[in-house]
Design brief:
A two-stranded antiparallel ribbon has the order 1-2. Helices cover 66% and strands 10% of the residues. Strand 1 and strand 2 (78-82) form a beta hairpin. The protein has two domains: 3-64; 66-97, no CATH class. The protein has helices at residues 3-32, 38-64, 86-97, and strands at 65-69, 78-82. The structure holds zinc ion. Zinc ion binds next to loops.
Length: 105
């Protein structure tokens, strides 16, 4: 991963964290209007922020990852990778296609 890609990843990570905190804070502001106790408000905000962070991180991972699956019928072997070069991606694609035993679970 070169410097530009690293910078882009850091910005995306910061945006994901900022969005998760914004969702948590938004919920906290709405709950505070109803006089929710501070301890309960804190628990709700942290829970929603962490759930949002988990969701956004998984969406980011799904959008930026590449998956290579074995092409044998009923074989469940797959290789998932993120932020790899084209040469590495090709190498892992070949490994996924030519592994020694096909898993048919
Ligand atoms: Zn296989």
């Amino acid at each position: 991963m070169n410097t530009s890609q690293t910078r882009r990843r850091r910005i995306a990570s910061l945006l994901i964290i900022a969005c998760a905190l914004a969702v948590g804070a938004s919920t906290g502001v709405r709950l505070a209007a109803y006089g929710v106790p501070f301890a309960l408000l804190t628990a709700c905000v942290l829970g929603i922020a962490s759930s949002s962070l988990w969701l956004y991180s998984h969406i980011d991972a799904a959008l930026t990852s590449t998956t290579h699956r074995c092409r044998a019928p009923y074989c469940t072997v797959q290789v998932r990778m993120r932020h790899v070069s084209a040469a590495d991606s090709l190498r892992w694609q070949e490994i996924a296609a030519a592994h020694p035993t096909h898993d048919t679970r």
